Amino acid sequence: MRRLFLASSALLALASCSMPEVAPQPAPPAPAPAPMPTRAPLPMPTPTGSDWRDWPVTAGTWAYRQDGRGSIALYGRAGADAELTLRCDRARGRLFLSRRADAAATLTIRTSTNLKTLNALPTGGVPAYAAVELMPRDPIVDAIGFSRGRFVVQGGGADLVLPAWPEILRVAEDCRG
């Protein structure tokens, strides 16, 4: 029996000494490199063809206001200075078309039915504008108001392509009495 006990103990010791083989684990994957920061691409300038009626409209919107001098229609982005204004000076019975410009400028106004070139003078304010005086019944005023969807003001800076909204004729009517 003693032999059986010794043999069993030896087998048990031998069995407990053998360890199962462990399969090697694959190495963890290398961390992905952090992406390099890239600059946002600059917007591509919108191609302008030879026909101004296909040019994109200048960013902004029209606003109409009244004050002690008369009324004014302003075009531009919210929270920024207007790019173009049309003011009725009721006391003088005149309209003043002004665009942002640093100096005197020759302005060309293109509508679907009319083209007019005007010499605008600096207003001396901050920001700087160049303005031209118009009679309230000047045909260019109605041409702007009734232009098919848009009109263009060239000169004194980048071309302005503006929607022909009712604010323009509203200011003109205020001056026509």
Brief characterization of the structure:
This protein has 177 residues and is α+β, with helices and mostly antiparallel strands.
Could you describe the 3D structure shown?
The structure is a single chain. The chain has 177 residues and is α+β, with helices and mostly antiparallel strands. The protein contains 3 helices and 9 strands. The radius of gyration is 39 Å and the shape is elongated.
**What's the total count of β strands?**
9
Strand residue content:
25-35%
Q: N- to C-terminal separation?
A: 132 Å
> Secondary-structure element sequence?
HEEEEEEEHEEH
**Content-based structural category:** alpha+beta
Biggest sheet, spatial arrangement of strands: 1-2-3-4-7-6-5-8-9
Largest sheet: 9 strands, antiparallel
- Uncertain stretches: none
- Radius of gyration from the alpha-carbon trace, in angstroms: 39 Å
Mean pLDDT: 85
What is the general shape? elongated
Query: If helices are DSSP runs of H or I spanning 4 or more residues, what is the number of helices?
Result: 3
Helix content: 10-25%
Topology:
Blueprint: H1 2-17, E1 61-67, E2 70-76, E3 84-89, E4 94-100, E5 105-110, E6 115-122, E7 129-134, H2 139-145, E8 150-154, E9 160-163, H3 166-176
Antiparallel strand pairs: 1-2, 2-3, 3-4, 4-7, 5-6, 5-8, 6-7, 8-9
Helix pairs in contact: 2-3
List keywords for this structure.
alpha+beta, nine-stranded antiparallel beta sheet, 3 helices, 9 strands, elongated
